[in-house]
Design brief:
heterodimer; A: 112 residues; mainly beta; six-stranded mixed beta sheet; four-stranded antiparallel beta sheet; 0% helix; B: 114 residues; seven-stranded mixed beta sheet; globular
Chain lengths: 112, 114
Amino acid sequence: AQSVSQHNHHVILSEAASLELGCNYSYGGTVNLFWYVQYPGQHLQLLLKYFSGDPLVKGIKGFEAEFIKSKFSFNLRKPSVQWSDTAEYFCAVYNQGGKLIFGQGTELSVKP
Amino acid sequence: DAGITQSPRHKVTETGTPVTLRCHQTENHRYMYWYRQDPGHGLRLIHYSYGVKDTDKGEVSDGYSVSRSKTEDFLLTLESATSSQTSVYFCAISERGKDNSPLHFGNGTRLTVT
């Protein structure tokens, strides 16, 4: 069965530091990938998505992600984080059955 | 934000009692989903619906049932709640239900089973 792995469970950064959150998936075929963000006490919101084309995808709030097919990875990046980026981040991929499956999530804490 | 309303927002219930959570959407989307969110597990799919009266199981469907009698409503029922079902439950909708269609989520229902 397809799976999604997020290796960083909790990341703590200071403001202005650069961010990279790892996401690896197991499916070898065509994939559609997503990053969602969940701010404290809120629902999940779509941050960015990759379907095809340019492997470097830009999302909202200065986030971007790079799809590297050879590494089965879709890592999320931001050059300079802010305190307001404190949230939980989820990587997700559609499996062969057309269901969106999620990684375990990475909690990001940004210290002011 | 997509028009998704979950009710109740919070509920405390006792083990063995039935519980029904409601998801209501105003987007007229065909696909609706129920996920549960637990620390260390991310979100896991419980059940989903691809149309009125058309539902199917997700990866953690045991102990749950669903019904969809109208496009706008998707109900999740715990027939006999157990402590392991203490969780935050999210409803999601999708326009096309295909692999290029993002999900939009409701605000969640926090369920505590004592």
